Amino acid sequence: MAQPTRPTPPSHTSAWDPHPEPLPLDSAPLPEYGSGSLADLLPTLAAGMGVPGMSTAIPELTPTDRNCVFLIDGLGWEQLRAHPDEAPFMTSLLASSRGGTGRPLTAGYPATTATSLASVGTGLPPGAHGLPGYTVRNPDTGELMNQLRWQPWTPPGAWQPYPTVFELAHRAGVHAAQVSSPAFANTPLTKVALSGGTFHGRLSGEERVDFAAEQLAAADRALVYTYYAEVDGSGHRYGVDSDTWRGQLMYVDRLVQRLAEQLPPRSALYVTADHGMVDVPFDEEHRIDFDEDWELKAGVALLGGEGRARHVYAVPGAANDVLTCWREVLGEQFWVASRDEAIAAGWFGPRIDERVYDRIGDVVAAARDDVLLIASQREPNESQMVGNHGSMTPAEQLVPLLEVRS
Fold this sequence. Notes:
Layout: H1 41-48, E1 66-72, H2 77-81, H3 88-92, H4 97-100, E2 105-106, H5 113-122, H6 126-129, E3 135-137, E4 144-146, H7 156-159, H8 165-171, E5 175-180, H9 188-194, E6 198-201, H10 205-216, E7 222-228, H11 230-238, H12 243-260, E8 267-272, E9 278-279, E10 287-289, H13 294-297, E11 300-306, E12 309-314, H14 319-330, E13 334-338, H15 339-345, H16 354-357, E14 363-367, E15 372-374, E16 387-388, H17 394-397, E17 398-399, E18 402-405
Parallel strand pairs: 1-7, 1-8, 5-6, 5-7, 10-15
Antiparallel strand pairs: 2-17, 3-4, 8-18, 9-16, 11-12, 12-14, 13-14
Helix pairs in contact: 5-9, 10-12, 11-12
């Protein structure tokens, strides 16, 4: 499947036409599930190490005995390519991306941390692993469930029952390890997405990459994961056009080089990300406030997701009316689909598990333009973020897969 490209905007109707045509759903650039998405990375690496049940989904990658995945939260492909001076080492690796093709991966929909980490760790797309958004409705309770913070608490094994690739690799005799912040050691998200083998908490970025290199050398076959969060954090707070964000990019570029220089023999380092990011201006044209819009609120029981990737849960019997209204109000800037339309289009992957179906909104809205559907009263903190993500635009969806081999 071809990588996403920004669709050509539809021609605008005349100013006096009250019913402009909504964006056609087939113009949304789909993730490359099954051949070039984040969910395909670990199964490909594990298959190359002989883990039973794993298959090579990304054919461009060459097998090796020791694999390390360094995931940089929030570092999209477009942002990296736009900042060669701040990231000289990673820029020098751009031609190595995706097995030397120079192409990116796709994150999956929505392009958000909880969803992407679950895709990475389980090797499954969102429709199967069941974390299809930042916040989604729990069908058993009717409440919104924040899948990043895991609030309110929900039994992790019931919410995401599949084993992770790390677990399967560990059972097959591969040395599996995660090296990340100690704060993530026992979180439910870690349990459902990244558990298996051993978790090692290290505070600083330098400690993490040094220990990741040690873990990589600890066995003849090894699968090691390490993570850095603050590129994403600075993007949310200050934007990807800020000096603070650029400083974080400079720092993590040095970390990548530090790790690359310590690779033991027969190793491959893969540098990737969970999503990219878009800066959205603070004005009414670019930030539509759901809490202040009576049309958008009509018939809505719960508003889930996040500003660029919304799940909308209608009151009983109102789903069709909500879909019609949202298309009329937002349809020139968002791809607006019913649950069944989004599933049929493949937004969440090639299959949807039965337990996941009702977690997806009755209406699903994904931003195409540089706009945000905030909720100033329900989500005051999220509504103030400069950098945002979640949708299927190239700036959010495309992530690098840089490679260094020893």
